[in-house]
Design brief:
The protein is of the alpha/beta class. The chain has a single domain, classed as Fe-S cluster assembly (FSCA) (GMP Synthetase, Chain A, domain 3), CATH 3.30.300. It has 3 helices and 4 strands; from the N terminus they run βαββαβα. It has a 4-stranded mixed β-sheet with strand order 1-2-3-4, covered by helices on one side. Strand 1, helix 1 and strand 2 form a beta-alpha-beta unit. The longest helix has 15 residues.
Length: about 110
């Protein structure tokens, strides 16, 4: 997680980062039934000092019809992190997502070797 938070100590930054990633793990891809973190869809998170959180992520395919649903769920999930005052999701397409970005858990759950 890249952070621009001069008012927080390194330990506080690490704790906030863990809470943000834990919140994002609650966002489930509706088609695959696995969270977006384990699917490897989250490419980066930045928390600015004023509490604005930017999530850079991709989708499994361009034109995914569930992009709005996933984005909305991310916004809801980030509300559980007190330090996050506002949030935005930036969809990126490079590098392109593939199954190598998935965690071991996601691979096992989906039967991918």
């Amino acid at each position: 997680m890249s952070e621009n938070v001069s008012s927080w100590t390194e330990q506080e930054q690490a704790e906030i980062s863990q809470r943000i990633m834990a919140a994002l793990e609650q966002v489930i891809d509706p088609e695959l039934g696995i969270d977006i973190v384990n699917l490897g869809l989250v490419y980066g998170v930045e928390l600015l000092e004023e509490g604005h959180c930017v999530v850079k992520m991709t989708l499994t395919t361009m034109g995914c019809p569930l992009a709005d649903v996933i984005t909305e769920e991310i916004m809801k999930a980030l509300k559980s992190v007190p330090e996050v005052q506002t949030s935005e999701v930036k969809l990126v397409w490079y590098p392109a997502w593939d199954t190598s970005k998935m965690s071991r858990y996601a691979r096992i759950a989906l039967g991918i070797r």
